[in-house]
Amino acid sequence: MGTPQEREKTPNQLPFSESTRQVMTFAKEEARRRNHHYIGTEHLLAGLIQKQPIKNELSKFIIDSNQIKSTIESIIGPGAIPVPVDKEIELTPRSQRVIDFASDEARNAGRQKIKPQDLLTGILIEGEGVAFGLLGRYGITLRKLRRLK
């Protein structure tokens, strides 16, 4: 069966950096905490805002990561049934596409591993989902993010 990181990896996907593995762990913990039986883009974003480089990126938009976390919690309520401890929480198809886009982004930048910033970019490239809508609500677009780099 393998670790969550191994299961999440698609054939052409680059491996995660250590920092991105931590993001994925945070995302999984957030999903479990909210009684969600899946890892959606909102969970990826919740994991991302735990990392300093992403907090720095968001601060350029004059956005506090705590604002985003509270908005995520107000948009998606808790699930009704707790996730059993032994149950593996899987990525949604949209979250997998985000990771695939992040892998492409890292590869195009000449990196060998997916960094958290690539996941943030992947959310914006994917162009749908809770995280994309939430970032748009704060005026964060792919074009603006790339201009800041």
Outline the structure in words.
This protein is an all-alpha fold. The protein has a single domain (16-148), classed as Orthogonal Bundle (Double Clp-N motif). Helices cover 60% and strands 3% of the residues. Strands 1-2 form a two-stranded parallel sheet. Helix 2 packs across helix 3 (41-48), helix 3 runs antiparallel to helix 7 (116-126) and helix 5 crosses helix 8 (130-137). The longest helix has 16 residues, at 18-33. The protein starts with a helix and ends with a helix. The model is unreliable at 1-7 (pLDDT under 50).
**Annotation field: number of helices:** 9
Query: How do the strands line up in the largest sheet?
Result: 1-2
CATH class: Mainly Alpha
Q: What is the tally of beta strands?
A: 2
Order of helices and strands: HHEHHHEHHHH
Label the structural class.
mainly alpha
Q: Provide the gyration radius in Å.
A: 14 Å
**Annotated CATH architecture:** Orthogonal Bundle
How many angstroms does the end-to-end distance come to?
38 Å
Q: Approximately how much helix is present in the residues? A: 55-70%
Could you state the CATH homologous superfamily?
A: Clp, N-terminal domain
Overall tally of domains? 1
- Uncertain segments are 1-7
| Named CATH topology | Double Clp-N motif
